[in-house]
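ok trying this again, last paste got cut off
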Amino acid sequence: MTITSFTIIFIVLLVSQTLMQFYLSSRQVKAVSLHKDRVPPEFAHKISLTSHQRAAKYTIAHQRVFLLEVLVDVALLLGLTLFGGLTWINTQLSMLISSPIWYQIALVLSVFAISTVISLPFSLYRTFVLEASFGFNRMTPGLFVMDLIKSTLLSLAIMVPLLYGVFVFLENFYGPNWWIWIWASFIFFTMILMFIGPKFIMPLFNKFTPLDNPELQERIQALAKRANFGLKELFVMDGSKRSSHGNAFFTGFGKNRRIVFFDTLLNKLTPPEIEAVLAHELGHFKHKHILKRIVMSVVISFIFFAALDYFMDKTWFYAGLGVFPGIGQPIFGIAIVLFSVVILPIFTFWYTPVSSFLSRKDEFEADRYAASQSNANDLISALVKLYDDNAATLTPDNLHSAFYDSHPPASVRIQHLKTVG
């Protein structure tokens, strides 16, 4: 293939991203290793040295798997682009499938399948080796297979009609403003998924039951009244059938919004601590964090489709990535693959610290709200228990944390709660 200016830009971005990932990971491993033999003073009375060292080993083990996965992803990316993989797949499918629409759908699904197969060994290793070795995994091989089948079928049920609609539209109505119509349809479709997800999609994988604890319900109803929050139902999710990790989250919107507790979380925390955790989740709602993230995703997707429109008919874009569609062949499928698998991950990697910063800002706001509606010390106590039980490191590297972490580091978050509480 001919090396073009865009090829050089692509290689520079890919290499710089990979080097940054290795650099940040090495800093994280070094910071965690350096402090593994001493529990930070603010946690020394609640977390044992054994637990602290276990968290260090867990963090380092995850980093090693992560780096291996980075190298495999780079190899896959280069294989699809500069080494001709996508061109070969495109050629084979165009000869096998006569329909331009179904050939393009098959192209997108083929790359999706290849990516899934390559990531499968990492998922298996994390679940049945890494997580199991630290006592977190509760998933059986049978459940793993069932989850894989369900998620694959669900993805196909969503992707095939969506891709078919996109390619039919592009074949018949491709023009100057095609991308605006596709973007608007994408947003509409995403909103539908967000609305039906909590009620129809998530129950395919987990069982959700209303919280059945009179004492806790009384506390929560009192909290909801103080917070002026119309709370209908709280749900408990059977997270324990897959992992011993505990969590809670706010999902959905409108009539389908719900707050969900992992059953593992309820088993580990006291009622006052659970109330404080719920107050934190209500804080996200009160500060409209979910709405802000939806608006942000709308803006980002707008930019994505505008860029796709710009690059769609540029020969140098395909040639620069080592992809050569056949003469007269539709290029919509190839363009979508290149943007989704190549361009989007590389060009958005450097947005990660901005996204992480905004997420941490939201967490601080939710913590302040929790402190105003419940006892800050109860939330601190709950967080410390979760850090301990989930083997979360208490001594992350500052730069790694600033780049990746959606939540503030443990010590920073606890200090903030002590200040506002």
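PB: full thing came through this time. The first helix runs from residue 5 to 34.
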